[in-house]
Specification:
This protein is α+β, with helices and mostly antiparallel strands. The protein folds into two domains: 80 residues, no CATH class; 304 residues, Sandwich (Jelly Rolls). It contains 17 helices and eleven strands. Helix 6 packs across helix 10. The protein is globular. Bound molecules: 2-oxoglutaric acid.
Length: 398
């Protein structure tokens, strides 16, 4: 049965891969569900199936992507479908970044985003809606009076399109060095899948909300292979909740987990400290404008904020939009030539830029959907006669 599936896949791959490259994939090592998963991705890419998370769940292949063998094979196929276009000059300029990402899963840039660009972004954030993760409250802008108004630690930009409308953000998304490094690291032309921004403040409800606020160690598994550009838009020292990252754990995460581990599970600090030596536990402090690229398949977490607050901008790239929860953004409003040119060329980078899908998303997913998630949890817990905070605390400590 699997042999038939394997032959079928191999004959499809023959359209764009050499026999030697197909042999190198060694499909014989993949189980039947994994072959199914690979066939699904090829089909999704060919048919332009975009938001296929439901699809992936329906075929139960999502969990198979936690297997590095399948991820490598699929990434190699994506690399052959969308080969990187780097020139040798770019490759030289980005080789250290790529090497750091391969070895450590992390590269901290030795230059910061210039102060003027930070200020331009921060000014624009003053009139962008943010949503409190804990309460679902919508706050009208990153402003001093809103910092603590959402009753939780973390507040997210509601609509990625609003962030992408900021010219300095557009320039970052299409920054030639970042793009060349990401493409080389992913081994395929990247898709810009997310633009995020959030601020975090101290809260007395930390323990219960740490999990929800990504402040406990976890791995991301949003896309087949992906990498995130973090930009600090506030000064971040040990008090302001620096990002924590377990260097190299994208390569050896298995040593920290048991066989019951599921990719969305949170790990305690003690679990991580038992599995990795202190020199592998990085805390990323840095002045406003600090930038780093991180493969967050590695263990990572924010540190709860003790004082002040932290403001982060994040841009995510993936080798495929397959099974991502990608929020679409419109093409209209891309004004910066460096990104507008890629839109005009219909580059794979802007696959998720689509006015029609954005309109649909905008109409059907208002803030209430995000708020709805918190409301649903509360209703569920209350219906069982439970206490919401106790439930969240238990979940966080699981
Ligand atoms: O806030 C942080 O530093 C953690 C962010 C995080 O978990 C993520 O971007 O996947």
């Amino acid at each position: 049965m699997s042999t038939t599936m394997q032959t079928q896949i191999e004959s499809e791959l023959a359209d764009f891969m050499s026999p030697a490259a197909i042999e190198e994939l060694d499909l014989t090592t993949l189980s039947r569900p994994q072959l199914n998963a690979l066939a699904e991705v090829i089909k999704a890419e060919r048919d332009d199936l975009f938001l296929s998370r439901g699809h992936a769940e329906a075929t139960r292949c999502e969990k198979d992507f936690f297997d590095p063998g399948l991820t490598s094979a699929t990434s190699a196929v994506l690399g052959a479908m969308y080969p990187p276009s780097n020139s040798s000059m770019e490759a030289r300029a980005t080789s250290q970044i790529v090497e750091d990402l391969r070895n450590d899963g992390l590269h901290v840039f030795d230059v910061r985003l210039p102060v003027e660009a930070c200020s331009a972004i921060i000014d624009a954030l003053g009139s962008i809606d943010f949503v409190s993760k804990a309460s679902g409250a919508v706050l009208d802008g990153y402003r001093a009076e809103n910092l603590h108004a959402g009753h939780g630690a973390t507040h997210w930009a509601r609509d990625h399109a609003e962030l992408l409308a900021i010219p300095a953000v557009q320039r970052l998304v299409a920054d030639p060095i970042v793009l060349a490094a990401v493409e080389e690291y992913l081994g395929a032309q990247p898709v810009h899948v997310q633009t995020n921004c959030w601020w975090t403040v101290p809260t007395s409800r930390l323990t219960a909300l740490e999990s929800l606020d990504a402040q406990r160690y976890h791995q991301d598994r949003e896309y087949i292979r992906f990498v995130k550009l973090f930009v600090y838009l506030s000064d971040v020292d040990h008090e302001n909740g620096p990002h924590r990252f377990v260097v190299g754990s994208h390569n050896d995460y298995e040593q920290a987990v048991t066989s019951e581990y599921r990719f969305s599970d949170r790990l305690s600090d003690e679990q991580i400290e038992r599995s990795y030596s202190p020199d592998r536990l990085r805390r990323l402090t840095g002045a406003k404008g600090t930038m780093f690229l991180a493969d967050t398949f590695a263990f990572h977490a924010g540190l709860p904020v003790k004082s002040g607050h932290r403001l982060v901008l994040q841009i995510e790239y993936a080798n495929s939009a397959y099974f991502g929860l990608t929020q679409p953004v419109p093409r209209t409003g891309i004004t910066e030539p460096v990104l507008a040119d890629l839109v005009r060329q219909d580059d794979r980078l802007v696959l998720n830029y689509d006015d029609e899908r954005y309109e649909e998303w905008h109409e059907t997913i208002p803030a209430t959907r995000i708020a709805g998630r918190a409301e649903r949890t509360k209703r569920m817990v209350r219906a069982r006669g439970g206490d919401v905070m106790r439930f969240l605390r238990q979940r966080a400590n699981r």
